[in-house]
Amino acid sequence: MKPLKNIASLIPATSLAFAIVLGVAAESSTVQAAATMTLPDGARPMTAVELYTLYHDKSWRWPDGAGRMENIDRRFSAWVDGTGGQSWAEGRWAVTDNGRLCLDATWHATNGQFPAKTCFVHRILDGTIYQKRETGGTWFVFRHPVTKQTDEATKLIADDLVSQRLEAMKAALTVHKTD
């Protein structure tokens, strides 16, 4: 699988944050190495309870930022600070019994606000969790039964990597807009 760098052309220039959210896992070497993976027969959709257990009150580290899925009100918040500029987001996250995790938020950047909804589909078989981004994604092993250091799931951590940075970024972008 090729990284989703071409998706940036679909998004306003300083809102590269959307590309990162849409391709959160695309930069992972695990994802790239599994480009030709076919979902194994018998893999079933993860339940909402399984997905909730996997993601609630976790931060998901990205190459240039992080997203946080809080338990309270299923709040989702994120920040990105990369070559495309700074962006932050607030919204909600949801899980379903057909294996979907969706991040639905409004992203804020110096050039405005942009709604974005990104969903990931999850399947499980014999303790292995498979994931793909909905619409155009490729299946890859998100987490092995015995977690490997290269698993994308290792980027889900209990520490809050978002709140403090989010507040600072909101303040910085607000000051920048009023200059």
From TrEMBL:
Keywords: Signal. The keyword Signal applies. Residues 1-33 form the signal peptide. It comes from the Bacteria. The keyword Signal applies. This is DUF995 domain-containing protein. It comes from Rhizobium lusitanum.
